[in-house]
């Protein structure tokens, strides 16, 4: 029996969408009195909406292509700018309404004043700034690499490792790159840190192992005296596209593991290595992806098998939800955990003492250093990008951590 399509939710969304755009148009009408404004506006909005629906249908069949990227990003920019414009417009309208109510108590008559042209102009300036900001994020921001340095102090750090440095990147998502020259700039910044150790905390690709092939020559340049180590992220398993057979999916993962080796990365799959210096050691462990809602594959017990409670341990685990669920209270103390995954949602603000991104409503700790129970977690904001082909306010990150003895 064919399932009956429920059109009610679609109708409700369409009504809200129409009402929202009508409100935006009313504000634009206060700026321009042209008789062509309304038809041009509705033709553009309607055409863009239908183009998005078509692009989504094509994407489900063919995957993400250039047409989908152009249409989806145009829609996102326009919609975000409209929201900003409508927000400031609404503030002005609420103020006008409150003033009308206040005056009505004194005069006995109720009259709402016309919109203040200066306020509408300000709202339009914010509309234009939003478009400019998104344009920057798409063209420049996604490659605007930042080096973030942290010094962490430990009571139980072996003396020989006092001053030991490591560089971390995460979430390369090589399939999203379109500018090899810009990527090379990031690689040069990584090598310029001259850290003792390099680690990569997962999501080398979006879906297919082949995505990293054009960039093997870039990432294989990364070298560190104590080696280069990596783990897998949720996207590396190929779970988000349809494979002809399960064997093809397994073969893809095996190829990806082989590419880690070509990059010069030692892939840690629920295992650990010992890093030795002057007769002392620290443990570097790495697990397969473990994340709430994104596959709980990793086995922490296996990764730390044959290690001691007194060993100083660093853990590579892609998803920060693993730290809250298992790591921070693990019986054998894990001194430092390194994660990624969140990307800081590639959008937010970290300035003037403000640290905010929509991703905070999904992850308690989504970027930077956190300490609890005498243990540290660092969440890297990601080297690459996914979905939204840009970054605004949350820039691509190269983390440098120095270990110091207390």
Present the secondary structure layout.
Elements: H1 8-29, H2 37-62, H3 66-107, H4 117-139, E1 146-154, E2 164-169, H5 180-192, E3 197-200, H6 216-219, E4 228-230, H7 246-263, E5 266-267, E6 271-277, E7 280-286, H8 300-303, E8 313-316, H9 321-327, E9 336-339, E10 349-351, E11 354-356, E12 368-372, E13 375-379, E14 397-405
Parallel strand pairs: 1-14, 2-3, 3-4, 4-5, 7-8, 8-9, 9-13
Antiparallel strand pairs: 2-14, 6-7, 10-11, 12-13
GO biological process, one term: lipid A biosynthetic process
Protein name: Calcineurin-like phosphoesterase domain-containing protein
Domain Calcineurin-like phosphoesterase: 165-344
Structure description:
Helices cover 39% and strands 17% of the residues. The chain is built from 9 helices and 14 strands. It has 2 domains: 132 residues, no CATH class; 265 residues, Metallo-dependent phosphatases (Purple Acid Phosphatase, chain A, domain 2, 4-Layer Sandwich), CATH 3.60.21.10. The strands form 3 sheets. The chain has a 6-stranded mixed β-sheet, with helices on one face. The protein has a 6-stranded mixed β-sheet with strand order 6-7-8-9-13-12. With 406 residues, it is an alpha/beta fold.
């Amino acid at each position: 029996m064919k399932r009956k399509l429920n059109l009610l939710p679609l109708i409700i969304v369409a009504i809200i969408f129409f009402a929202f755009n009508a409100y935006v148009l009313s504000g634009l009408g206060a700026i321009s009195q042209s008789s062509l404004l309304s038809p041009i506006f509705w033709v553009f909005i309607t055409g863009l909406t239908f183009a998005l629906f078509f692009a989504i249908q094509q994407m489900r069949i063919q995957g993400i292509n250039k047409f989908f990227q152009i249409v989806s990003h145009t829609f996102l920019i326009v919609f975000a700018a409209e929201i900003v414009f409508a927000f400031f417009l609404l503030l002005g309208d609420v103020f006008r309404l409150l003033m009308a109510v206040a005056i009505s108590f004194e005069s006995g008559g109720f009259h709402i004043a016309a919109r203040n042209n200066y306020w509408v102009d300000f709202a339009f300036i914010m509309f234009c700034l939003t478009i400019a900001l998104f344009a920057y994020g798409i063209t420049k921001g996604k490659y605007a690499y930042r080096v973030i340095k942290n010094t962490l102090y430990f009571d139980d750090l072996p003396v020989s490792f006092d001053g030991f440095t490591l560089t971390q990147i995460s979430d390369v998502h090589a399939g999203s790159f379109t500018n090899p020259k810009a990527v090379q700039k990031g690689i040069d910044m990584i090598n310029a840190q001259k850290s003792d150790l390099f680690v990569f905390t997962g999501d080398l690709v979006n879906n297919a192992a082949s995505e990293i092939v054009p960039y093997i020559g870039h990432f294989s340049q990364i070298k560190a005296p104590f080696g280069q180590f990596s783990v897998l992220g949720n996207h590396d398993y190929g779970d988000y596209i349809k494979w002809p057979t399960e064997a093809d999916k397994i073969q893809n993962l095996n190829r990806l593991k082989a590419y880690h080796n070509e990059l010069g990365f030692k892939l840690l799959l629920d295992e650990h290595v010992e890093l030795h210096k002057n007769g002392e050691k620290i443990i570097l462990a790495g697990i397969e992806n473990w994340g709430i809602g994104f596959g709980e594959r990793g086995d922490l017990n296996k990764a730390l098998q044959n290690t001691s409670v007194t060993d100083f341990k660093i853990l590579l685990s892609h998803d920060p939800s693993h730290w809250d669920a298992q790591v921070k209270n693990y019986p054998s103390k894990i001194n430092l955990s390194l994660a990624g995954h969140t990307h800081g949602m590639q959008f937010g603000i970290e300035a003037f003492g403000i640290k905010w991104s929509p991703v905070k409503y999904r992850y308690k700790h989504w970027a930077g250093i956190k300490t609890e129970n005498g243990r540290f977690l660092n969440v890297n904001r990601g080297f690459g990008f996914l979905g939204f082909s840009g970054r605004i306010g949350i820039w691509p990150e190269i983390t440098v951590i120095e270990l110091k003895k207390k």
